[in-house]
Amino acid sequence: MKTELWYTEKQTPNLALSCKISNILHTEKTPYQELSVIDTVEWGRMLLLDGVVMTTEKDEFVYHEMISHVALNTHPNPQKVLVIGGGDGGTIRECVKHAQVEKAVLCEIDERVIWASKEYFPGIAAALFGHPKVEIRVGDGIKFVQECNAEFDVIIIDSTDPVGPGVGLFQPEFYQNVHKALKPEGIMVAQTESPFVNAGLIRRLFRDISGIFPVTKLYLATVPTYPTGLWSFTLGSKVYDPTDVAVSRIPEPDTKYYSSLVHRNAFVLPKFVQAILEPR
């Protein structure tokens, strides 16, 4: 009798994602976390950090397109972009698709994530292979933004969940430093978890970011391998409102999920998500 191998992520104390594994490609303990790459029957190759799904070959495009293009198409001239985290390279890959982007800096704390992504996810990590627009910095993104002053047009916080090395990326002090690191017309965007199981966190982050940025908007996308499949992003802008961008002005990049209509409709929130953002 052939034994089947399954991977199970306990996404909450009461919810789990389970996938049939066809092969275990790599495992290691980095200085920061447990890193694994597995082949799954349903989702293809999957990158895990501390047993949590970071990205998969099959659905990665949704997350990476939505965390990138909304802000980049809201800003009229995003020449210099910073991605904090995102060592798999998917967000940087989307950033360099924009002709106006002249430089995209990736600041990733764990160099082994970059290595594993280049080795096992070349389609996602394509922009990390010496792309002329891309600068890779291995280091702490929290410290990096502390040292920047009005340097970037767009900052994308492509973080892990708020545990381990990612905890500091969900604090108001960090968002204050991101604000300082942005130019006067700058925009930031962060992944802010699932409204079904992280409502309290979303409420706090929206309050913190809206207390710093005059324009703060939450938007949604469907990422099947993340908890509940419904995922939120919070955008903070010094000037530009992403819901005011004319559809005719939004270019149609080489994408599979994002489009000009998706850009606008992602901000149409269900009533229960609107209720999360209401002051209490």
Write structural notes for this entry.
The protein is of the alpha/beta class and 280 residues long. The protein folds into two domains: 5-56, Spermidine Synthase, Chain: A, domain 2 (Roll), CATH 2.30.140.10; 60-277, Rossmann fold (3-Layer(aba) Sandwich). It is 26% helix and 32% strand. It contains eight helices and twelve strands. The strands form two sheets. Strands 8-7-6-9-10-12-11 form a seven-stranded mixed beta sheet, sandwiched between helices. The chain has a five-stranded antiparallel beta sheet with strand order 1-2-3-4-5, covered by helices on one side. Helix 2 (90-95) links the parallel strand 6 and strand 7. The longest helix has 15 residues, at 60-74. It is globular, with a radius of gyration of 18 Å. The N and C termini lie far apart (57 Å).
Task: Please supply descriptive tags for the structure shown above.
280 residues, alpha/beta, Spermidine Synthase, Chain: A, domain 2, Rossmann fold, 2 domains, seven-stranded mixed sheet, five-stranded antiparallel sheet, 8 helices, 12 strands, 26% helix, 32% strand, globular
Structural category is alpha/beta
Write down the overall mean pLDDT. 94
The helix content is: 25-40%
CATH fold-level topology of the largest domain: Rossmann fold
CATH architecture of the largest domain: 3-Layer(aba) Sandwich
Taking the sheet with the most strands, its summary is: 7 strands, mixed
Distance between the termini: 57 Å
Strand order of the largest sheet: 8-7-6-9-10-12-11
Q: Report the count of strand segments.
A: 12
The CATH class of the largest domain is Alpha Beta
Which band does the percent of strand residues land in? 25-35%
> How many distinct helices?
8
- Note poorly predicted spans: none
> What general outline do the C-alpha atoms trace?
globular
Reading the helices and strands in chain order gives: EEEEEHEHEHEHEHEHEEHH
What's the domain count?
Answer: 2
The radius of gyration is 18 Å
CATH superfamily of the largest domain: Vaccinia Virus protein VP39
